[in-house]
Amino acid sequence: MYDPQNVIAYVGGADLITVIDIANPETPQILDRQEFGKSDVQLCGDILAAVAYNPDGDALNGTLQIFSPFNASTGVITLINTIDICSEPDHLIFTPDCSNILVACSGKPGLDLDGNYTNPEGAVAIIDTTDIATAGAEAVRIADFTKFNDRADEFVQAGVRYIYSG
Questions:
Q1: Are 98 and 83 in contact (CB under 8 A)?
Q2: What's the half-sphere exposure (Cβ side, CA atoms, 13 Å) at 18?
Q3: What is the SS3 string spanning 130-149?
Q4: Which CATH code of 2.130.10.10, 3.20.20.70, 3.30.1360.10, 2.60.120.10 fits the domain covering 2-157?
Q5: By three-state DSSP, how is residue 67 classified?
Q6: Whole-number Å distance between alpha carbons of 161 and 164
């Protein structure tokens, strides 16, 4: 994620968010690194958001982690909130006005904490950013697709690819 105002990049993945000064592209400088999990990071206004898988298993709920943007005075980004969201959060995007964050919930199958196999369905988590620093479960709405399940044959005939069809 590129922050043109501060000429820095936020890079997610490999269990880290890395903040890189790219004012001189020939000699980029790592400014900060924070452990957070494996997935996506986005910036909107003064909200730096990242989604992280659950380290105990893909079928378990992951989190949305909220950081302050990079602070040049302190030299760090700071984790300010963690919100439990959905199974295998994968990609996130802000609405244009930064009022909501949309997260793709892949719903990858796996074992729950009791060792039982579970196969959560995919969904989209919608997180209200109004009070994001203190938000909890009340800020999260889940849009699922279960209402379409009984029409699977109709969608397949129309060309929709249905990989896990029984």
A1: no
A2: 12
A3: CCCCCCCHHHEEEEECHHHH
A4: 2.130.10.10
A5: strand
A6: 9
| CB 46 within 8 Å of CB 24 | no
pLDDT digits (tens, 9 = 90+) for 90-101: 899 999 999 999
- pTM equals 0.84
- 50 strand-pairing partners: 41, 65
Determine contact, residues 160/145, Cβ cutoff 8 Å: no
pLDDT digits (tens, 9 = 90+) for 112-157: 888 889 888 889 999 999 999 999 999 999 999 888 889 989 999 9
Q: From edge to edge, which strands make up the β-sheet containing 16-21?
A: 2-3, 8-13, 16-21, 29-35
